[in-house]
């Protein structure tokens, strides 16, 4: 029997940019990112580059007639929900894109690609002035600090100058500007992206920050911890494509920027170790995280079942035991799986109060996420009873045991679990094995706990059973 078609109608976005033979940036990065956001990506190739993770070897700009033909073919067939631009290379290409953007009834995100992350120049010097007209047609322009300095004459070195550069870009006609903070204050621990929105164009962009009675553009900053890596190849392309994808879905500009920067944070944190250079951002990290949730929940459920079968009641703390599993790309408690209500002792052994779900744990989950900052391969954790016998039993574990002292916790710590994990794992030399367990000796009103961790559910189970064997 012939099967009935079950068509899907995703929003469509267009990227007008150069091709990256290395696959980490340009058209390739844009299309991967759009697909990861459930958007059908179309493309107009402006230039062909011979490049990889180490740099750009050659670049060839396509004839304007060929670029026109590509755009015409896409525009005549697809209902474009958003457009983003990347490498445009020459003044004639920029002028062409400006002309087409002016006629579009769709958001336009302009990523003014001028210099590659490797330092290679990707824009003809004579074309820099041509960007002024294109910025005037932009819904959002997304320069990094170097590009903002070229476009505005203002070097964004801090919050104030980043805001000034954004306001200058809005003054050039853009509805909004996002001055990216990745190149600002490279020695700082925090990356600050600054969004400046023109109040007059705000109705078409959706709600934004600031009071309606204020004068001038509204300003909002997006802050996240800096990731200690040089593997940022393709980061600018990926961010602008993520924002364009959200706009194609009909989201407000502010939501699109917030979601795009969060997407970028994960893509850099879990960057791809490919090529001989620093590497590239992981365009599909968020998609892989979502795909890994069911398997992680299943893994946790199987560990819980093994604990029930073996009867680990001797190791269950007064507060109850919880088994937590983090997805491979987890960044938040909601991306960890745990037992809802914990595992408690019964007359016949132990039993979970309810089933396994995402976000069911707070304490152990936050501890595990903090520990993953030091060893991203850690995926599972469990809290066990702490007494003299279990403490002695940790000698039977197949890895080192460390601890933290609650009395040393500063008043401004964001939480004991995260702080404790940072103390315990941060004290271990990078060349030494990751601890198998961490001792928390408790405090007044706080039960002492042994937290056991593992890279796999099997390793976690084996370590818990090693403790159990030792105390039994």
Automatic annotation (TrEMBL):
GO terms for molecular function: ATP binding; hydroxymethylpyrimidine kinase activity; phosphomethylpyrimidine kinase activity. Its EC number is 2.7.1.49, 2.7.4.7. One of its GO terms (cellular component) is cytosol. Signal peptide: none annotated. Keywords: ATP-binding, Kinase, Nucleotide-binding, Transferase. Residues 300-463 form the Thiamine-phosphate synthase ThiN domain. Pfam families: Phos_pyr_kin, ThiN. One of its GO terms (biological process) is thiamine biosynthetic process. It is an enzyme of class 2 (transferase). The keyword Repressor does not apply. Residues 20-282 form the Pyridoxamine kinase/Phosphomethylpyrimidine kinase domain. This is Bifunctional hydroxymethylpyrimidine kinase/phosphomethylpyrimidine kinase. It comes from Haloplanus rubicundus.
């Amino acid at each position: 029997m012939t099967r009935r078609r079950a068509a899907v109608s995703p929003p469509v976005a267009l990227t007008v940019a150069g091709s990256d033979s290395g696959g980490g940036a340009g058209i390739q990065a844009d299309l991967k990112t759009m697909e990861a956001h459930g958007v059908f990506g179309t493309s107009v190739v402006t230039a062909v580059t011979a490049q990889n993770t180490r740099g750009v070897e050659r670049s060839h700009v396509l004839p304007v007639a060929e670029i026109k033909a590509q755009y015409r073919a896409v525009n005549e067939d697809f209902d474009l929900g958003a457009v983003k631009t990347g490498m445009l290379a020459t003044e004639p290409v920029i002028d062409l894109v400006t002309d087409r953007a002016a006629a579009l009834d769709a958001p336009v995100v302009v990523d003014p690609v001028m210099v590659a992350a490797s330092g290679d120049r990707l824009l003809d010097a004579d074309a820099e002035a041509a960007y002024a007209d294109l910025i005037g047609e932009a819904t959002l322009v997304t320069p990094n600090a170097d590009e903002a300095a070229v476009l505005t004459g203002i070097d964004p070195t801090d919050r104030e100058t980043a805001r000034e550069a954004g306001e200058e870009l809005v003054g050039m006609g853009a509805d909004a500007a996002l001055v990216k903070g990745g190149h600002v204050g490279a020695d700082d621990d925090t990356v600050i992206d600054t969004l400046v929105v023109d109040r007059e164009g705000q109705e078409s962009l959706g709600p934004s920050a600031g009071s309606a009675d204020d004068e001038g553009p509204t300003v909002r900053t997006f802050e996240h911890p800096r990731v200690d890596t040089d593997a940022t190849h393709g980061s600018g392309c990926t961010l602008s494509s993520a924002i364009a994808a959200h706009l194609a879905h009909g989201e407000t500009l502010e939501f699109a920027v917030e979601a795009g920067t969060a997407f970028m944070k994960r893509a850099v944190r879990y960057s791809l170790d490919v090529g001989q250079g620093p590497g590239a951002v992981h365009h599909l990290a968020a998609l892989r995280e979502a795909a890994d949730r069911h398997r992680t929940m299943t893994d946790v459920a199987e560990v819980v079942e093994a604990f029930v079968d073996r009867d680990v009641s001797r190791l269950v703390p007064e507060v109850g035991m919880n088994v937590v599993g983090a997805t491979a790309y987890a960044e938040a408690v909601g991306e960890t799986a745990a037992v809802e209500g914990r595992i408690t002792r019964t007359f016949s052994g132990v039993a979970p109060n309810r089933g396994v779900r995402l976000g069911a744990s707070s304490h152990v989950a936050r501890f595990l996420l903090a520990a993953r900052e030091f060893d991203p391969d850690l995926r599972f954790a469990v809290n066990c009873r702490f007494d003299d016998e279990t403490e002695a039993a940790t000698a039977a574990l197949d890895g080192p045991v460390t601890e933290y002292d609650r009395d040393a916790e500063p008043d401004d710590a964001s939480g004991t679990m995260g702080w404790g994990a940072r103390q315990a794992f941060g004290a271990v030399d990078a060349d030494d094995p990751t601890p198998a367990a961490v001792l928390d000796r408790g405090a007044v009103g706080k039960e002492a706990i042994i937290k056991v961790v593992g890279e796999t559910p099997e390793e976690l189970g084996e370590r818990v059973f090693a403790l159990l064997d030792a105390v039994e």
